[in-house]
């Protein structure tokens, strides 16, 4: 089963992807992971990506797509895969479709985890990070035993600038503008599986599995 996982920041994609990986025995593949692995392996596309990254330039679509192509040829993808963070545009989606068709493969489902903006802001704005050991906390969902102090090392907890409410609103608006055309694209393809991302982790996983069935 070949999946694409869509969803805004703090929708719970990472958690759900790990559970799907365990349930179906297929790897979660993120763009960031693929780039790092390709660079480390020194593959032709990895070397091109490294050149762009070293110069501070954006990695072009053809390089990202080439790295996706390389990654999907690895043995652990034979039973399927979960693409997380790719495609990001309808142009990338078109290229992915053609690339998979050439291998006699296709995307089976596009899981889109949906969470209301006010809930996403609440989740993101409540995050706190330890300045010393980088341990994550949340003022509501995972609070430290002592306010502002890391349980692990006693370091100071702080809020990252991009987790502040005004920054979060900008991030979410950018995501919406970027992703809506992609959601519409897969809706037209008949592949979109919208999932309510509110509730317990296991309940959300159950909704995803029902949609995939």
> What percentage of the residues does DSSP assign to strands (E)?
15-25%
Q: Which class do the helix and strand fractions yield?
A: alpha/beta
What value does the average pLDDT take? 90
Proportion of helical residues = 40-55%
Tell me how many strands there are: 8
The coarse silhouette is globular
Main sheet makeup: 5 strands, parallel
Number of domains: 1
Low-confidence segments: none
Looking at the structure, the CATH topology is Rossmann fold
Architecture, according to CATH? 3-Layer(aba) Sandwich
- The CATH class designation is Alpha Beta
Radius of gyration: 19 Å
Q: Would you identify the CATH H-level superfamily?
A: P-loop containing nucleotide triphosphate hydrolases
Distance between the termini: 11 Å
What is the string of SSEs from the N terminus onward?
A: EHEHHHEHEHEEEHEH
**Widest sheet: strand order?**
2-3-1-4-8
Please give the count of helices. Answer: 8
Can you describe this structure?
This protein has a single domain (2-26, 79-212), classed as P-loop containing nucleotide triphosphate hydrolases (Rossmann fold). Helices cover 49% and strands 15% of the residues. It has helices at residues 13-24, 31-41, 44-55, 61-72, 90-102, 117-125, 165-188, 201-212, and strands spanning 2-6, 28-30, 81-84, 109-114, 127-130, 136-138, 157-158, 192-196. The radius of gyration is 19 Å and the shape is globular.
